[in-house]
From TrEMBL:
This is ubiquitinyl hydrolase 1. InterPro entries: JOSD1/2, Josephin. The keyword Cytoplasm does not apply. It comes from the Eukaryota. It comes from Cylicocyclus nassatus. It is an enzyme of class 3 (hydrolase).
Length: 187
């Protein structure tokens, strides 16, 4: 399993390479995407002003689009790309961290570049619920995979909770009545 360790603020590079399971992207590749989105070289709005990484979601979506990946429905899921706030070392600096949760042989693996090695996630629905319940909407989860572009959907927070309930039903963890009760309480 391909996994990179964190360097500078290059977590989106690491998250994308974890998704593709090879060194597909570099800082230079993502910088070029930034320049294609905005021609500003010094204070490009799609990365940190120091040029150390910290890329935004527009860079992610452009990079995924280069290889026909999009945000998709859960059944076509190849990975979940996660974006979470990081501790601020510089006042007034809002940093974020990207990482990939890869689906492989119907098992999920956390390929966070801050981990020394990949970690299997034994209960993906609980893991995603935990991510969604933290820090009042500031955690972001992007379902990515390949498929028919007409099947692509943008998944908001409540729709993602519904997807998690469907996953629990599919895996036999809950029945339809329990799902309806949970759906009513979570939404």
């Amino acid at each position: 399993m391909y996994h990179e360790r964190q360097t500078r603020q290059m977590c989106l590079v690491h998250a994308l390479n974890a998704l593709f399971q090879k060194p597909q992207f570099t800082a230079e590749t993502l910088d070029e995407i930034c320049y294609s989105l905005s021609d500003k070289r010094w204070f490009n709005p799609h990365r940190s002003m120091l040029g150390l990484g910290n890329y935004d979601v527009n860079v992610l979506m452009s990079a995924l689009g280069m290889y026909d990946y999009q945000r998709i429905r859960f059944e076509n899921l190849d990975a979940i790309i996660v974006n979470v706030p990081t501790g601020n070392y510089i006042p007034f600096w809002k940093g974020r961290h990207w990482y990939t949760i890869l689906r492989q042989d119907n098992r999920f693996f956390n390929l966070d570049s801050k981990l020394s090695k990949p970690e299997e996630i034994t209960d993906i629905t609980q893991h995603c619920r935990s991510l969604l319940s933290k820090t009042e909407d500031s955690n972001q989860l992007f379902l990515v995979g390949k498929g028919d572009p007409t099947d692509f959907v943008s998944v908001n927070r409540s729709a993602f909770h519904e997807l998690l309930i469907v996953c629990d039903i599919y895996h036999g963890k809950i029945n339809n009545h329990q799902a309806q009760v949970r759906l009513n309480s979570e939404l």
